[in-house]
Amino acid sequence: MQKTCYIQKKGIRRMKYTDVLLKGGRNMDTNTKLILSTVLASFFTFQLLFHFISYWFSAKVSPGFNSLSSEKKIEWNSRVVSTCHSLVVGVFGLYIFFFDEALKADPLWGDSSVVKVNISIASGYLVSDLLILILYWKVIGDKYFIIHHCTALFAYSIVLKEGVLGYIGNFRLLAELSSPFVNQRWFFEALKYPKFSKANVINGILMTVVFFIVRIVSMPPFYSFIYSVYGTEAYIRLGFFIQCSWISTCVVLDVMNVMWMIKITKGCIKVISLIRQEKAKKSLQNGKLD
């Protein structure tokens, strides 16, 4: 009798353990399907946007688009795609940053399907843009973009595969909020807008301020956070590979952010000095007229 009860209990324990494994497997399969389907949908959507939708939409919205050279149109479409991607993942990222309590409670190990969707969208875009860069290398090829995209893809693949650092991945995506202003500056230049036009000056100011906030000002608190969790039980559980990958990819991306910020600052200083020169010329002309 006792032996029968023992066998039954042991059987129940085995059944429970099997159920846990099956549930875990089903969840893993569901997550994998969600990630892969989102990455693929993102990739094909951005390809469609680049090759077809942007041509049609840009011609409707901007009459100057049709007068651009074929090379300029390629870069134009690439930047339209970049702007669309930035707006989607940036706004989505802000929502997650402010309202996803589970991630805020556990930044290293917090798991969120919403974050996975956002990072999957970004990953699909990065693969799509890499393909476009390679196909049109002579027109829009840039080695820094290749480094940036490959580094970001490597980092995001860890987040999606291992289910860790979702909060960090989403935080890094907030840097994309500066891209629409950078792209708009190029659009104005391609359409030959005057450098001192009101729209150009306002966009230039917004571009510099937003880029500085989301890519430079965010650095000290980000690296302070790394320092605060370094050596904790949650950090140790990540393992050496993920720890090194996390920090090294962020350093590479931030070095490029600093380089781009310096370039933007130089351009901003140049425009301000030109505006002052124009004002000085006007005042001299007014003085002569008087």
TrEMBL record:
It is a multi-pass membrane protein. GO terms for biological process: lipid homeostasis. Its main location: membrane. It comes from the Eukaryota. GO terms for cellular component: endoplasmic reticulum; membrane. It is found in: Membrane. Residues 71-273 form the TLC domain. Keywords: Membrane, Transmembrane, Transmembrane helix. The chain crosses the membrane at residues 34-59, 80-99, 119-137, 201-223, 235-256. This is TLC domain containing 4.
